[in-house]
Amino acid sequence: NIFQRKQEARNPFYRVVELTDETEDPAIWGKNFPLQYDSYKRTVDQVRTRFGGSEARPRTPTSADPRSIVSQSKIEEDPRLKVMWAGYAFARDTREERGHAYMLEDQTFTERQLVVQQPGACLHCHASVYVPYKKQGNGDLMAGFAKVNQMPFAEARKLVTHPVSCIDCHDPATMALRITRPGFLEGIRALKATEGVANYDPNTMATRQEMRSYVCAQCHVEYYFKGQEKRLVYPWAKGLKVDNIIAYYDEIGFKDWTHAETGAPTLKAQHPEFEMWNQGIHARSSVACADCHMPYKREGATKISDHHVRSPLLNINHACQTCHRWPEAELKARAEAIQERTYHLRNLAMDALIDLIKDIKAAKDAGETDDKLAPIRDFQRKAQFYLDFVEAENSMGFHAPQESARILAESIDFSRKGQLLARSLSPAKRP
Amino acid sequence: NIFQRKQEARNPFYRVVELTDETEDPAIWGKNFPLQYDSYKRTVDQVRTRFGGSEARPRTPTSADPRSIVSQSKIEEDPRLKVMWAGYAFARDTREERGHAYMLEDQTFTERQLVVQQPGACLHCHASVYVPYKKQGNGDLMAGFAKVNQMPFAEARKLVTHPVSCIDCHDPATMALRITRPGFLEGIRALKATEGVANYDPNTMATRQEMRSYVCAQCHVEYYFKGQEKRLVYPWAKGLKVDNIIAYYDEIGFKDWTHAETGAPTLKAQHPEFEMWNQGIHARSSVACADCHMPYKREGATKISDHHVRSPLLNINHACQTCHRWPEAELKARAEAIQERTYHLRNLAMDALIDLIKDIKAAKDAGETDDKLAPIRDFQRKAQFYLDFVEAENSMGFHAPQESARILAESIDFSRKGQLLARSLSPAKRP
Amino acid sequence: MAAPISKSLRNVTVSASLAVAVLAGTGLGIGSYTFFYANGWSYFTNDPAACANCHVMQTHYDAWVKSSHRAVATCNDCHTPPNLIGKYYTKADHGFWHSYAFTTGDFHEPIFMKARSRAIVQASCRRCHGQIVEAIESPDPHRGQMDCLLCHGTVGHPM
Ligand SMILES: [Ca+2]
Ligand SMILES: [Ca+2]
Fold it and tell me: For B104, how many CA atoms within 13 A lie in the half-sphere containing its CB?
């Protein structure tokens, strides 16, 4: 009723409990901010869109993996992925990602854990690590980060309890957004240095609108583990485009794995949402991740950010229609037209890559030397990374439609040129 | 001043002369509509943008070609075009297109006229043909069209006097837009039939906003000359996408020319602006050609359509800022970012096509049979048409950024697959 | 209220009398001719039709008539600050520059709001909707306030 609304409005923050820089549990924050907490909890929902969301698939829990529901498997939906990633943990188990509520358990129980001994660095993006890092570093976030990175996953896993929580994005005193992730702090500093800005610190130098994307870019980015210390690094020292990132990896001679069928030193791209969004028209128009994935919604006499982070296509009226006054069906059709085009090219690029892998394997089986194979394997490395940069990016091209198509076109060219080179090797040696 | 402005606002059209359905000369129309006529005359201006507009290049007039100024040559700027079009008139002379004022003389004096005996059908889009068609058809537009199509160009040329003029787009009685071009009337009818609309007639069934694009689509479209009668046809009976159009040509077994180096039955795409625009977000948002290329401008108290048809990037405040509230420099940068990406892919696709042409030539020189070459030549046909569909489209991808990139990606794939096939032919026969 | 907004409003008040003087001083020039001929005085009313006296405001007027705010906010509710001096200063400022620009025809088209006008409009949004947006107002204003117009730029006159 009106009276209650007026109350709510005058008193949007009920400070019923004291929050400190050690309050990890979101339920406690929820006492002060029940509306945000309620929507935050809804990230357990699973609803599928044409290319996003996720589908709840029942499974029989085991002692090794107690999950009774997972989301659909990407490698079963498209088995070519197993060839593309042959020899890497992703070929064993890769699923459609789902809501934030699942991040910790999905990481803990993915079968990828059974293939490779993973480091503590993994947790950076799958748990509320702010308080644990500080504790491990005796109050020093960066020191704790360095320490946890190097631990075996199982050991580090014991230090954390929650998926991403309020404290990971908010300052408990003011509720202002803040960056808590060392990986992003170092990554954005390196990036800004290339633009001539020294010692960039988002926590003091970013605008509010920038922060509405940066809190997401703490995790939704490409990364690798550097050296023995398994330091989590965002490869942005040459820029954010796929071309800059591969140039960076080439320079330091990094590879994620050796392809099982071809012996190529390959790279796995992972969720470069922030990088791709940056190339798109929305980023250029200052439209932030939160604008679409956490749009405002009205609750009584106040409007709040919808903490049910999810596909905007499940929430078109709030996520899109304030800016685009078209009917919901039309907006959905627009997004899907972009996605369908991307999907078509992704399939062409995938076919080309599989063809290349076959040709390299044949040349290798025919006894070609590593010397001769090197430039061809390099084509595979490039073709794979470019394709994966779109495949692993979760918007199926929406975040940057033309750039996604551009990247896939280059991937096709790399694959086919690699094939031409592979086939130019002495055919006499062919089986 | 204000007084005059108020006057103007009350009385925008001075009907000083009577216009009939036979008034060809735009200067006479200009007596009634001096503002539109003044801007219409300014299409003689030549200003270059990064990828559009045109550059005025002086030349020494000859008796065969009296032009003292032409625009830059595309085939000199990128000599790969001569290989792509080898054996066709376009390899002899293709220039950047310029303002409407030049259409008749540029067509008359292009060196392409020296290579092929052109038909009267050419004039459909380069002259004010409405009155001449009606005269030749004794009052029947379609009959006149059929008759002029078949004439030799030189003969038909004598029937016309003006470049596109007021009467080609306007009804002299009401000044409403109207379609006068048989090619478009037939083309759009075939297209609408595929969508289940029978006997479509734009002159009675199109909305005003549609007409603001259709008047341009009378000419800015892909076309071919059908059969002995050289009937001008827009190949839309299966749809407007590049894939639909090539399917149409394949079905009727049409080719524009035989490639001189490879013997492939190739197709030349020509200015498919209407087709490409249709795939873009602006068309989807009902933004018409005239909105960008003839935006409203204020003349005193009246707003008129700027009849100085030209690159919108030379007129950003009127052409774009009504809808996009960003600074001019930013809007230019946005358009150019799209164009640069397209240009990059266009170059990749061009390289791939040239490589394919080399490989087919080598296989042919090595004595491969037409039977064996046929599927490879078909790859060339496809790769060439897809690439040309973007190359010949004059917005360098702006009209449909992702679709242009998609088409180029497919072109690359066709070229490279063609190469793989060419090289799989018995290498023993290679020179 | 956001720092940048209140600051520019304070500047407004301080220089208001000066500006009125300038306006008066030019009163015998072309500005005043325009001002009167174009029914300048109606400008000081709250009637939106007064704005549409200038045909360059006609499109905004036509759009406002169809807007969600037609029944609840007039032009001045959004485009002038609330206090009396600010209000009439802003009107004088607009009035003078509009007349000047209109007469000379020397203005950028389409018309874009200046930064100061943008701040005034956003202050108006907050004046009416302060309550509902309280929860989303920035807790650390030095980072900048939420830009209402990023999402709601068309509420006054969707064109
Ligand atoms: Ca998902
Ligand atoms: Ca041009």
Answer: 15
A138-182 pLDDT, tens per residue?
A: 999 999 999 999 999 999 999 999 999 999 999 999 899 999 999
Amino acid at B324: H
Q: Which residues of A touch C140 (CB under 8 A)?
A: 174, 176, 208
**Residue A294 CB-half CA count within 13 A:** 22
Question: Which structure tokens are listed for B52?
Answer: 């559009």
Collapsing DSSP to helix, strand or coil, A52 comes out as coil
Token duo for residue A392: 């692993």
Sort out which chain A residues have CB atoms less than 8 A from B341's CB and list them: 402-403, 406
Cβ-defined contact of A420 to B420 (cutoff 8 Å): yes
**What is the per-residue pLDDT across C26-58, written as a single tens digit (0 to 9) for each?**
333 334 434 443 444 444 467 888 888 888 888
Ligand 2 ion: Cβ-proximal residues, 5 Å cutoff: B 52, 54, 96-97
Give, in order, the Cα–Cα distances in Å from B25 to each of B105, B154, B160: 17, 22, 11
Interface of A with B in 267-326 (CB under 8 A): 281, 284-285, 326
Q: Is C130 on the interface with A (CB under 8 A)?
A: no
Q: How many CB atoms lie within 10 A of CB B409?
A: 28
Do B416 and A413 meet the contact criterion of CB atoms below 8 Å apart? yes
Q: Exposure string (b/e) for B35-50, b if CB count within 10 Å is 16 or more? A: bbbebbbebeebebbe
**Cα–Cα distances in angstroms (integers) from residue B284 to residues A324, A332, B128, B210, in the given order:** 13, 13, 31, 12
Determine the residue among C125, C131, C145 to mutate to test chain A binding: the one whose Cβ has the most chain A Cβ atoms within 10 Å. Answer: C131
Interface membership of B147 toward A (CB under 8 Å)? no
pLDDT at A430: 56
Least distant ligand from the CA of B314: 2
Q: Which of B2, B297, B322 sits opposite C103 (nearest CB)?
A: B2
Q: Residue B57, Cβ neighbours under 10 Å: how many?
A: 13
Contact B423 A424 (CB under 8 A): yes
What is the Cα–Cα distance from B415 to A36, expressed in whole angstroms?
54
Q: Which parts of chain B sit beneath pLDDT 70? A: 1-14, 426-431
Residue B135 Cα distances to B24, B159, B215, C80, angstroms: 12, 10, 22, 63
What are the residues facing A257 on neighbouring strands?
A: A266
Domain C47-152, what fold?
Multiheme cytochrome fold (1.10.3820)
Instruction: Collapse the DSSP code of A14 into the 3-class scheme (helix H, G, I; strand E, B; otherwise coil) and give the result.
Output: coil
**ipTM metric:** 0.91
Domain ranges of chain C: 1-37, 47-152
